[in-house]
């Protein structure tokens, strides 16, 4: 079917022969080069979700408080008092592997535009980051660059980075994961959607000029894996370059346009650039659009139409404006020193026409909706890995054991990272980074008045658990996220996800994805926290080796009555320590634990039993005792098990502990889900244990605080000073060893 | 108190609304002044808030000093009007020559955000009313370029004229003499790197910044020299 000369072109653009034939059928003719380029970006894995869509449908997405679910620029929930919250998470993995600073910076910029596109002022960013091992100089180069990029762009654009994660593991050596979550608030009535409607309305391109940066980023970069490092360097021109000052002015200008009710629809320009923004707004609004490429303000002379249409130059927005409002729109743009060009007109025929001058030559013409609605959808073959049973039969607790040394190795204070981020702007940060969850005061975006309530936020992923068992592992990740915000007093409301996986053409990767979606679905239903948005990042592989499956969730919840700071993880002297939640029975499995991966050296085994219903009860109980300030301190048991959790509490408090019943490395470092440590006064102990038992939450008294050392049974006796040094120095020392670029 | 405070907004400023909220919560009346205006609307005091005026391009504050409003603010200050520069605002004031010295990159070459303990050194200025030297305050910093430098002569002058307003207890950025804030000779122009507006509520970790802003609200115009 395909003519000889086009044969090569569509393949080079990342389209399969079958996809080419679909385009031929849709148009009833061969597409020209420009049209082909437009289909190639819109039908890329990144834009079309063609491999994952069929699975994503199984996620719960509805609840009475969900105003906008998946499929728009961001999810939006109603948080009461006429206030809505927009939230979204995205990946910028591949660009960050090649050009760490700009990859991360433009990741922040892109996600912020998704938020203000909905009419919300972005008030928080979180950055779950995953890099190769710290002893690899190139991984250190990537880590430093990414952290500087988040810091450089986020601080300057004026949105605080209030939390995140930092993980180092061999699996991310060639392919780091740079996920960014952003959240914003808006008055419910200001919610706008990316729709073009009203024949004759104008499409105004706002912001930076369009250049040759990021041409085909979604197809060249985001939808293919990495080979060797020299090939990666060749892809560097596909990475965009960010300008936070341009973004800041664009943001303020757009919020002013929205405040004055001057736009009927607005859309950010991200992946696939103008092609995506014009076709998406038109097809969502059931309209068409004429686009005059000669009107696009460009960065250089002589750009080809396909370059203008697929460039991913940053800091651009497309606003749909009624002709009578155009002058005011231009006035506001000029006040903020933002370029603005009328590049399109809404039409009624559903066609997306690319023209050289509104009355000039037609360069491309296609039904706008075909770029979205007719994008391919694949049910790719899936199969569990062939060695699954063998892998699961391994004992993950074997290996050289030295509990004291192991504990010191597992401690890593992330302060070196988050102290580089402005995490306090907007005066909302009650609990910031470095804690279990983040807690932000909720203020009315119209008046700035406090509502007496607060939003809990956390991002969580765990490639180890998900590698061992993607289904249970993902359910445990959701439970961990819920527990983290419970520790600051919030109750789960919604989830966004970033599904980072390997090559979807590998059946075991598709199996991981499918299993992870099921695990997430079960857990989100159990917590009554629907998925309101997300992002799928596939082809995370280097030399055909896939990364361990890494679904990352961002969770948002509500603290209904904020009157004082939540207890936090800091303990005083002379308190009782209680472990809440499901207690592992017998010889507990170490599978998927940091100890097993980083010290024992076993990546297999079977995860410890996990009771989702029990985790839901524990989360509800924990958020309640935090809201009522029933305890002096609370800390989630996560990475590194109870050993690390207790050490972190001791370090933060500069107070020792004496805990019994932890007799070996299994008890110390296993990562059974759904547990927290709380500290409370002796006089409250009896009634607290009774109450937790009445609530169906297992609780056991495990020890006391006091002294200057952490004493855990007969296996650990370390001074708090030694623990502090190990934890505080881990990152600066490792990252201070020098780096190697590209 | 009904003192009117103008909070200047340059393109790229980002702490203007936090500053307005903090001042209003203390009973003041803050309003935002756009950088290209040259009218100060009869406010009683000026705050140059934190952020990245004009993107901090070229050098922090280097472009902002040319914004039209700066000329009016300089005249306002010459007439003894109270002017407080916070973080980026401090950088703008040094670039504009309204305060001595300059702010260069932190010694660790990293952006730093977090709580710092600072000590009141001189209280004879617009934010020291009711305070005494030696008092300790917890106020967050948030900067890349907070490393204060000046010539030996200037340092000597600052010390002799009692114009060092704050010193860090545990110097985070390499500032000469641990300096966290300075004033002009009359004490009506003060620049400081820590953010008092971020320390105006115990639920956010500290309320020590409130008294500085309260002092600003009560500050009298000094007699021009």
Describe this structure in words.
The complex is a heterodimer of chains A (742) and B (225). With 742 residues, chain A is of the alpha+beta class. In chain A, 36% of the residues lie in helices and 23% in strands. Chain A has 26 helices and 28 strands. In chain A, the strands form five sheets. A seven-stranded mixed sheet of chain A has the order 8-10-7-11-9-12-13. Chain A has a seven-stranded mixed sheet with strand order 23-25-22-26-24-27-28, with helices on both faces. A six-stranded mixed sheet of chain A has the order 1-2-3-6-4-5. The longest helix of chain A is centred in the first third of the chain and has 21 residues, at 137-157. Chain A starts with a helix and ends in a 7-residue tail after the last helix. The mean pLDDT of chain A is 93. Chain B is globular and about 40 Å long. Chain B has helices at residues 16-25, 68-78, 88-95, 152-160, 210-218; strands at 4-9, 29-34, 45-48, 83-86, 102-104, 112-120, 136-143, 147-149, 164-168, 179-183, 189-192. Chain B has a nine-stranded mixed sheet with strand order 2-1-3-4-11-10-9-6-7, with helices on both faces. Chain B contains five helices and eleven strands, in the order E-H-E-E-H-E-H-E-E-E-E-H-E-E-E-H. Chain B is an alpha/beta fold. Chain B has one domain: Rossmann fold, CATH 3.40.50.880. The model of chain B has no long low-confidence stretch (mean pLDDT 95). The chains are: A alpha+beta (742), B alpha/beta (225).
């Amino acid at each position: 079917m395909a003519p000889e000369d086009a044969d090569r072109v569509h393949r080079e653009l990342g389209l399969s022969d079958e996809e080419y034939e679909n385009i031929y059928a849709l148009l009833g003719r061969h597409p020209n080069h420009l049209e082909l380029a437009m289909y190639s970006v819109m039908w890329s894995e990144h834009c079309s979700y063609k491999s994952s869509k069929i699975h994503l449908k199984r996620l719960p997405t509805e609840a009475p408080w969900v105003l906008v679910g998946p499929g728009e620029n961001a999810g939006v929930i109603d948080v009461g008092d006429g206030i809505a919250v927009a939230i979204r998470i995205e990946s910028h993995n591949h660009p960050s592997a090649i050009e760490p600073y700009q990859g991360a910076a433009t990741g922040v910029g892109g996600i912020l535009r998704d938020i203000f596109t909905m009419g919300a002022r972005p008030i928080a960013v979180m950055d779950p980051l995953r890099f190769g091992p710290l002893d690899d100089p190139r991984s250190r180069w990537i880590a430093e660059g990414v952290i500087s990029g988040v810091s450089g762009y986020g601080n300057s654009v004026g949105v605080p980075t209030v939390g995140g994660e930092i993980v180092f593991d061999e699996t991310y050596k060639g392919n780091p994961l740079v996920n960014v979550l952003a959240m914003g608030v808006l008055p419910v009535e200001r919610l706008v959607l990316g729709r073009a409607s009203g024949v004759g309305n104008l499409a105004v391109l706002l912001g930076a000029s369009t250049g040759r940066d990021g041409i085909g980023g979604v197809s060249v970069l985001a939808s293919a894996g990495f080979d060797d490092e020299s090939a990666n360097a060749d892809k560097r021109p596909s990475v965009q370059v960010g300008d936070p000052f341009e973004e800041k002015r664009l943001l303020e200008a757009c919020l002013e346009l929205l405040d004055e009710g001057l736009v009927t629809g607005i859309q950010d320009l991200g992946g696939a650039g103008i092609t995506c923004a014009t076709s998406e707004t038109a097809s969502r609004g059931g309209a068409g659009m004429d686009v005059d490429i000669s009107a696009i303000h460009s960065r250089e002379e002589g750009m080809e139409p396909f370059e203008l249409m697929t460039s991913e130059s940053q800091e651009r927005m497309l606003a749909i404006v009624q002709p009578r409002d155009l002058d005011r729109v231009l006035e506001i743009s000029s006040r903020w020193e933002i370029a603005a060009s009328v590049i399109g007109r809404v039409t009624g025929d559903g066609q997306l026409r690319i023209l050289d001058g509104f009355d000039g030559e037609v360069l491309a013409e296609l039904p706008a909706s075909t770029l979205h609605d007719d994008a391919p959808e694949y049910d790719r073959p899936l199969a569990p890995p062939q060695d699954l049973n063998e892998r699961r039969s391994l004992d993950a607790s074997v290996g050289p054991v030295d509990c004291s040394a192991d504990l010191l190795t597992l401690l890593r204070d992330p302060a070196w990272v988050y102290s580089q981020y402005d995490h306090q702007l907007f005066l909302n940060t009650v609990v910031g980074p470095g804690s279990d969850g983040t807690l932000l005061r909720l203020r009315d975006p119209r008046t700035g008045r406090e509502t007496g309530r607060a939003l809990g936020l956390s991002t969580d992923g765990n490639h180890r658990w998900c590698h061992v068992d993607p289904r249970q592992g993902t359910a445990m990740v959701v439970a961990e996220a819920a527990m983290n915000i419970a520790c600051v007093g919030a109750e789960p409301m919604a989830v966004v996800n970033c599904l980072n996986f390997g090559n979807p053409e590998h059946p075991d990767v598709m199996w991981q994805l499918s299993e992870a979606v099921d695990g997430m679905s079960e857990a989100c239903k159990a917590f009554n926290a629907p998925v309101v948005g997300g992002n799928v990042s596939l082809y995370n592989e280097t030399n055909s080796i896939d990364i361990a499956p890494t679904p990352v969730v961002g969770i948002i919840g509500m603290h209904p009555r904020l009157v004082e700071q939540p207890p936090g993880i800091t303990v005083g002297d002379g308190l009782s320590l209680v472990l809440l939640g499901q207690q592992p029975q017998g010889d507990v499995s170490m599978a998927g634990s940091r100890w097993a991966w980083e010290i024992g050296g076993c990546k297999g085994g079977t995860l410890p039993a996990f009771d989702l219903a029990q985790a839901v009860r524990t989360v509800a109980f924990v958020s309640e005792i935090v809201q009522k300030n029933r305890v002096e301190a609370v800390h989630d048991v996560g990475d590194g098990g109870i050993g690390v959790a207790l050490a972190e509490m001791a370090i933060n408090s500069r107070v020792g502990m004496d805990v019994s019943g932890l007799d070996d490395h299994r008890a110390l470092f296993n990562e059974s889900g759904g547990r927290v440590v709380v500290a409370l006064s002796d006089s409250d102990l009896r009634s607290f244990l009774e109450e937790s038992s009445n609530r169906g939450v297992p609780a056991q008294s495990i020890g006391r605080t006091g002294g200057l050392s952490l004493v855990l049974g007969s296996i650990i006796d370390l001074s708090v000073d030694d623990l502090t040094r190990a934890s505080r120095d881990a990152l600066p020392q490792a990252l201070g060893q020098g780096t190697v670029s590209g | 108190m009904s003192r009117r405070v103008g909070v200047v907004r340059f393109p790229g400023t980002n702490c203007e609304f936090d500053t307005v909220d903090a001042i209003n919560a203390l009973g003041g009346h803050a309003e935002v002044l756009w950088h290209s205006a040259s009218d100060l609307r009869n406010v009683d005091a000026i705050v140059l808030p934190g952020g990245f005026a004009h993107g901090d391009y070229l050098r922090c504050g280097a472009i902002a000093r040319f914004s039209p409003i700066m000329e009016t603010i300089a005249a306002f200050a010459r007439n003894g009007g109270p002017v407080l520069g916070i973080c980026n605002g401090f950088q703008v004031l040094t670039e504009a020559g309204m305060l001595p010295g300059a702010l260069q990159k932190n010694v660790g070459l990293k952006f730093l955000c977090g709580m710092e303990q600072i000590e009141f050194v001189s209280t004879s200025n617009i934010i020291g009313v009711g305070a005494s030297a030696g008092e300790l305050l917890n106020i967050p910093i948030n900067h890349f370029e907070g490393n204060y430098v000046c010539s030996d002569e200037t340092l000597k002058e600052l010390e002799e004229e009692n114009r060092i307003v704050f010193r860090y207890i545990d110097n985070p950025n390499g500032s000469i003499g641990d300096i966290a804030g300075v004033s002009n000779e009359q004490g009506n122009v003060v620049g400081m790197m820590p953010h008092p507006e971020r320390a105006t509520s115990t639920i956010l970790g500290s309320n020590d910044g409130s008294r500085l802003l309260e002092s600003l609200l009560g500050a009298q115009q000094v007699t021009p020299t």
